[in-house]
């Protein structure tokens, strides 16, 4: 079948500002719609129970290809199959890609961290870059694009590594990542500083994560710099951040796949309801569960788990999203430390029956007054679908200890927040807990948990002196849980490739980016 013969599923934006709906490939390349809205597909495909159940007979990559085909992406079927085979192959340390560990007959942990960086971001970032590159190639062929891309990412630690690993050696794209110098863990620093690949660059930035992010934003807003990149290097800047539809879609796959797998394994009957509990930050992961439900997967309640940054819990419980006087709290689950949860916008778009005017109004309220309140009908829809709880730092660490003592299974702090939320909220249905990081990415807090040390309190001197790798080895010896992923275990032995530290001013970042591009051109 030729691309142009396919029934096209186009993408419109949540604020109704785009001139025309765009194709999947355009949505992936654009990321954000004009006017600041987020792209959503006009049609959500539905699968029958039999079609869902049948997915379990396929390897994961083919399950993913099926779902992309159901969404009618405007790429040839062979291309989709080939990209999925690369995205979900032996770059994962388990051939099931995201295996499920059942802690009891009705508590199932979906392990989303078997990818190359041991974080759930790999599920999306092993996939998106390949589709980004293929989309750019197709648009180039159609004469709609005449340049390559520089992906610029500001990271507080985990996303940067997953993005580097996803974009490394991908055609037509290079990637530069900025992290706060001294503000990431030893493991996170080494994961980034030892990154392999010909098209990658990493900088420490003097300052904190906010400085990195502001620096990146300023560079994205500098039109003169954009023109220089285009004229001299035929390159455009892109961010590939978590609002890109191409990052969301791979996440829908694992919920459909997990349901099919549980049914195939006899852990539930096809058609039984399964509740889902997701440790939530930007609302991408839990939104993917919502879309899986819309596709026909019999998911029940969606439990939104927050840490002490409980803006989403308060929103789901009150209908008001309010950051006007909300402090930003540091927690043992930093990837959920967030105030503005950007994918909530897509969720509200769906729950209002796709009312772009309402969304544009609420987002303007959020910018202007730092709060918005949804109408009663929308709030009622939120309450039907979601329940939420927030877990404090001490309870998070207690949960790691308790689950280890009960089940001999180590949770990372993000997953622990979800586990405890599920315990607090669950009803009759079995629960699927989204596990978003391997424990060894957060060894310091796992050590605190197991030794009853309070959150934020210093580790004993001899433990604090250990490298991240050595600390993980100590935990593995003490617990007997000896499953440290190769990519984390080998870090002390790898050469440091990137140790440059730059200032976070717009000019400093732009100069560093140009040096990187010139070096690439050589
Ligand atoms: C990014 C991240 C989350 C939050 O996921 P969202 O899709 O932003 O809600 C949770 N846990 C870990 C470990 C993450 O890296």
TrEMBL record:
Coiled coil: none annotated. Its EC number is 4.2.3.1. Its cofactor is pyridoxal 5'-phosphate. It holds the Pfam family THR4_C. It comes from the Bacteria. The keyword Cell division does not apply. Transmembrane segments: none annotated. The modification N6-(pyridoxal phosphate)lysine is found at residue 121. It is an enzyme of class 4 (lyase). One of its GO terms (biological process) is threonine biosynthetic process. One of its GO terms (cellular component) is cytoplasm. InterPro entries: Thr_synth_N, Thr_synth_N_sf, Thr_synthase-like, TrpB-like_PALP_sf. Residues 11-88 form the Threonine synthase N-terminal domain. Keywords: Lyase, Pyridoxal phosphate. GO terms for molecular function: threonine synthase activity. The keyword RNA-binding does not apply. Belongs to the threonine synthase family. PANTHER family: THREONINE SYNTHASE-LIKE 1 (PTHR43515). This is Threonine synthase. It comes from Eggerthella lenta.
